[in-house]
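Give me structure tokens for this 164-residue protein.
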Amino acid sequence: MTTLRLATVALAAGLLAAVAAHADPRVVNGCRIEPETNCAYAKLENADLAGVNLSDASLHAAVLRGANLAKANLQRVDLQVGNLSSADLRGANLERAHLFANDLEGAQLEGANLKGVNFVDANLRGANLKGADLTGARFDSADLDGATWSDGRVCATGSVGSCK
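Here you go.
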């Protein structure tokens, strides 16, 4: 009888682990936190999304002001005309993300992978890009006034499109 009871407990533990592995993704203010999700116009202010995988997601015009996205996977995400001001994106992977006209004022992007990111017309005033990989990133008409560049220098007043 003891062997049967142990086998039942082991089976139940295995089933619980399997259910947990396939559990529904987290939902924050109606937005499913998972790759390829569609959360256009989502209100995710101050959300703790550290380490999440939102690769290939549509977050068009989403508000993530003050959100914690440290070490998040945001590859190829559509965040154009959104708001990431004061967000923590340290160590995040934003490779080939679309951040056209995004508000990133005061955002922390230290050590982030920003390869191929479209920052055209973005507001990066006071943002921290120290140690970020900017290979192939586009900054046409982006406001970089007071931003800390990847090499640690602070961009001069009037820096638009490039750090001066």
